[in-house]
UniProtKB/TrEMBL annotation:
<comment type="similarity">
    <text>Belongs to the ACC deaminase/D-cysteine desulfhydrase family.</text>
</comment>
<feature type="domain" description="Tryptophan synthase beta chain-like PALP">
    <location>
        <begin position="3"/>
        <end position="288"/>
    </location>
</feature>
<keyword id="KW-0663">Pyridoxal phosphate</keyword>
<dbReference type="Pfam" id="PF00291">
    <property type="entry name" value="PALP"/>
</dbReference>
<dbReference type="InterPro" id="IPR027278">
    <property type="entry name" value="ACCD_DCysDesulf"/>
</dbReference>
<dbReference type="InterPro" id="IPR036052">
    <property type="entry name" value="TrpB-like_PALP_sf"/>
</dbReference>
<protein>
    <recommendedName>
        <fullName>Tryptophan synthase beta chain-like PALP domain-containing protein</fullName>
    </recommendedName>
</protein>
<dbReference type="InterPro" id="IPR001926">
    <property type="entry name" value="TrpB-like_PALP"/>
</dbReference>
<dbReference type="GO" id="GO:0019148">
    <property type="term" value="F:D-cysteine desulfhydrase activity"/>
</dbReference>
Length: 300
């Protein structure tokens, strides 16, 4: 492409249930659930949620009961989308799965399910979508620490990643303040528009900085691009398909259709728009999710 040197941090290889970025968050969330004597872990996500799959796996590993509530965000999907990929693995790991009907408000539906469980005396530990709160974000504070330790070899000039629920970017930005790191961090939106995502990430990053008792970031440090979402979350785009095929055929690395595929499409777009020079060393964080490719065969 005639652009910068590109490096990939393989968080798709974190090991838990085929890997992914949620493992880092769950390393902090699951111990907190155990500390709070949780009887049931409840989490939410889209039908092909990588977070749901890894939460189900973490619960299986730790002997915890798990309930996953799924939202149908993608329009006009074939049956394979609803039953294969992450959904199949959710069930294989022993999680109970509820799918919110399309004609119901997802927030109201999930809140009612949780309240019904609590009313029966169940000690529920709720993990938000993507594991994205100030506890889960600590996983990516630690990730940035790893990057900093490696940086004397590479001199990274930019970090790029897909940003959806916002926890990954939140942790990286909070870590940037905690470790006094000056590497710019850019998120490629996969769900929300630029302004919404900036506000979401800044709010959670501020909470995480306060939790770490470090200097709070300035909102101007939250950098995102929303040109690569397409028609919506999880909806296939031409640029995602091109990016996914490029990495598969050139590097034998599998991206996913929802996050890393659109994230890498964003990186390609930034290169085409001359955002980097040939002297830049760009680190792309691969957040995992290739499990869902089988559920998206129809899109390719």
């Amino acid at each position: 492409m005639g652009g910068p040197n590109i490096f990939i941090k393989r968080d798709d290889c974190t090991g838990l249930a085929t890997g992914g970025n949620k493992t880092r968050k769950l390393e902090f969330l699951i111990p907190d659930a155990i500390k709070n004597k949780a009887e049931l872990i409840v989490t939410v996500g889209a039908v092909q949620s990588n977070h749901a799959r890894q939460t189900a796996a973490a619960c299986a590993l730790m002997g915890l009961k798990c309930l996953i509530i799924l939202e149908q965000r993608v329009k006009n999907t074939p049956e394979v989308y609803m039953n294969s990929g992450n959904v199949f693995l959710d069930k294989l790991f022993g999680a109970d799965v509820k799918v919110c009907p399309k004609n119901e408000n997802f927030l109201e539906y999930s809140e009612k399910v949780i309240e019904d469980l609590k009313s029966k005396g169940t000690n529920v530990y709720f993990i938000p979508g993507g594991g994205s709160n100030s506890i889960g974000a600590l996983g990516y504070v630690e990730c940035l620490n790893e990057i900093i330790k490696e940086n004397n070899k590479y001199n990274f000039t930019q970090i790029i990643h897909a940003t959806g629920s916002g926890g990954t970017q939140t942790g990286l930005l909070a870590g940037k303040k905690y470790f006094n790191c000056n590497i710019p961090i850019t998120g490629i939106c996969v769900r929300y528009d630029k302004k919404t995502q900036e506000n979401r990430v800044y709010t959670e990053a501020k909470k995480t900085c306060e939790k770490l008792q470090c200097k709070v970031l300035d909102k101007s440090e939250v950098i995102v691009y929303d040109e690569y979402i397409g028609t919506g979350y999880g909806e296939p785009t031409d640029s995602m398909k091109e990016a996914t095929k490029l990495l598969a055929t050139k590097e034998a690395i599998l991206l996913d259709p929802v996050y890393s595929g659109k994230g890498f499409a964003g990186l390609i777009g930034l290169i085409k728009n001359k955002k980097f020079t040939k002297n830049d060393n760009v680190l792309f964080i691969h957040t995992g999710g290739a499990v869902s490719l089988s559920a998206y065969e129809w899109a390719f």
